[in-house]
């Protein structure tokens, strides 16, 4: 068993770990990313249904539909990290008005569903990922 003291040593040990251990460490990141993605999608679906009530127009339904089309999640096993959001420059361009939906304008309220979900779930995500990392480090 290797003795790991700091973050650099941990990163180095995980980088050179067998692929099965790397996959085990990344699995919790994958679960957290998928959970956050699903919760944001549920929030966007609710916002899309309520858009005519909030604004009196159906334009916001198009914006939330566009967001659902381009909002994605991905996990990098090499970096052992997950990303959720508009991940490509094309997605940013195509979902331009999503920024107004999330942050609001002087005519509409802000509904930053992405950040609300992350703040609600962050502690659980971090604890679950720490437990998974501890299990993997013990096997090194």
- Number of helical stretches of at least 4 residues: 6
N-to-C span: 6 Å
Summarize the helix and strand pattern as letters: HHHEEHHH
Structural class: mainly alpha
Number of DSSP strands? Answer: 2
Main attributes of the structure:
140 residues
Give an overview of the whole structure:
By secondary structure, the chain is mainly α. 69% of the residues lie in helices and 7% in strands. It has six helices and two strands. It has helices at 7-15, 19-55, 59-70, 89-94, 98-103, 113-139; strands spanning 72-76, 81-85. The chain has a two-stranded antiparallel sheet. Strand 1 and strand 2 (81-85) form a beta hairpin. The longest helix has 37 residues, at 19-55. It is elongated and about 55 Å long. The mean pLDDT is 78.
Please render the helix and strand layout as text.
Blueprint (H helix, E strand, L loop, with lengths): L6 H9 L3 H37 L3 H12 L1 E5 L4 E5 L3 H6 L3 H6 L9 H27 L1
Helix pairs in contact: 2-3, 2-6
Task: Describe the structure concisely.
By secondary structure, this protein is mostly helical. It has 6 helices and 2 strands; from the N terminus they run H-H-H-E-E-H-H-H. The model has no long low-confidence stretch (mean pLDDT 78).
């Amino acid at each position: 068993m290797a003795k790991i003291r700091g973050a650099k040593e941990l990163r180095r040990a995980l980088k050179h770990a067998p692929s099965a251990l790397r996959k085990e460490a990344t699995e919790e990141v994958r679960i957290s990313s998928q959970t956050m993605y699903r919760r944001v999608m549920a929030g966007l679906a609710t916002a899309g249904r309520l858009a005519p009530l909030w604004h009196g127009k159906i334009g916001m339904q198009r914006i939330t539909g566009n967001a659902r089309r381009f909002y994605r999640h991905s996990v990098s096993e090499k970096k052992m990290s997950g990303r959720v959001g508009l991940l490509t420059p094309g997605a940013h361009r195509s979902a331009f008005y999503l920024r107004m939906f999330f942050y609001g304008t002087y005519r509409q309220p802000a509904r930053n569903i992405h950040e609300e979900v992350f703040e609600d779930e962050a502690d659980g995500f971090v604890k679950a990922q720490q437990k998974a990392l501890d299990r993997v480090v013990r096997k090194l």
